[in-house]
Amino acid sequence: MSFPKGFFWGGATAANQFEGGWDKDGKGLTSDDVTTNGTHTVPRRVTYILPDGTPGECPLFQMKSLPAGTKFVPLEGNLYPNHDGIDFYGHYAEDIALFAEMGFNCFRLSISWARIFPTGLEETPNEKGLEFYDKVFAEMKKYDIEPFVTISHYETPVGLAEAWNSWADRRTIDCYLRYCETIFKRYKGIVKYWMTFNEINCIELGPWMAAALATDSEQVKFQAAHHQFVASAKAVLLGHEIDPENKIGCMLAATECYPATCHPDDVHMAWEKTSQNRFFTDVHCRGYYPSYKLKYFERKGIKIEMEDGDAEILKKGTVDYLAFSYYMSSINGDASRMTKAEGGNLDVGGKNPYLKASDWGWQIDPVGLRNCLNELYDRYQMPLMVVENGLGAFDKKEEDGSINDDYRIDYLRDHIIAMEKAVSEDGVDLMGYTPWGCIDLVSASTGEMAKRYGFIYVNKFDDGTGDYSRERKKSFFWYQKVCKSNGADLD
Ligand code: BGP
Fold this sequence. Notes:
The protein is of the alpha/beta class. The protein has a single domain (8-22, 83-484), classed as Glycosidases (TIM Barrel). The chain is 37% helix and 13% strand. The termini are close together. The mean pLDDT is 97. The structure holds 6-O-phosphono-beta-D-galactopyranose.
């Protein structure tokens, strides 16, 4: 096994899913703070109060348009698991020490926008919020752990949603850039690697989760995505101006879609699914809207309002690298030639008879990762980074307290082997690997704690109980060998 010298090995998290401290030190409410718990069969709900005072709720992945004047708030009688997360806010020193013990040379985390600008609308930042990340980065520096920072990961301040339906309105671009400028300046020389938006394509499938956007209209979603593209391109330009050393990437929830059969129509349908996904990176990485999407907008009567200069900004502000999450592959084709898969994340495709699935129905496909790396590298010719990958599973504590998560080790090993092949046999330029939820945290799609990804077990449970203590799983010691051997020792 050979990975390049200096390859990044670490893990990935997001503020909303692990920090907790939801109302500490001046932090404002975010989209996730008003999202309840759920299970893989019972959807999470977004809660709010309508202008006439009536409380309401909406399933997270069926968000609808709501009247102006709606207030997004937690409502009595519900559980909001992200409020306390796993209390990284109170445990950051202990957690970073555990990451260092595993041999991480990098760690992906996000900054909570609402810790810095509580409603998103303020002119000046919340100093207390900035101080928290000063401490986190200083702790990482102690162990030479390079930060990879997602600027916006699934938690837009609800102040922006209440003001003008967040990203549906162009004014959010300026709010975002004020936030970017603040953190680029504050953490200059400390953070070099940034990502502008987590899973940018999820605005289409989960608009509330991805962008605090209350809508079910494609028109609104794609207009909001345009604002995010412009914001991202401007952030790239600004970040380079503030520190030419900055490397600013985008982040895609990559799906690898196979045709259900070799029937040409199925091949075409698989291509359509892939294009739906790659549209977002086409704009980020190439700097313009691809023809197939412009035609799609034409057919659907979608009109993207662009201001003068937008096209030039998109062109100039292309990203420095492409980061992506990869968990599973899917298939697409005519319904008569495939069976629908059960479960899945946001986008459920067909069932692939050659693959096994996780308990949540995510179809496990390490070769798909190699295919995906090749396809993305071939398409964009820029450095890639796998910033999320992993197996959400029910972990069991044995009587002696040990957690023997061999299934997780198997999953990760197979994916690392696939990455290595993409690098050494296919020549893909891959910067690093940060498996998702390196420490157990709240699931984004279901809000569960029971869906665990970590090398580190956290004693926090779905009913809100638990003392937040941390324990090393079997995979902790396995991944320690992987990191320390630069991927050579996978036994
Ligand atoms: C990605 C998100 C993460 C993370 C992960 C696992 O889509 O970027 O935030 O949660 O998926 O998903 P889940 O938590 O739903 O299992």
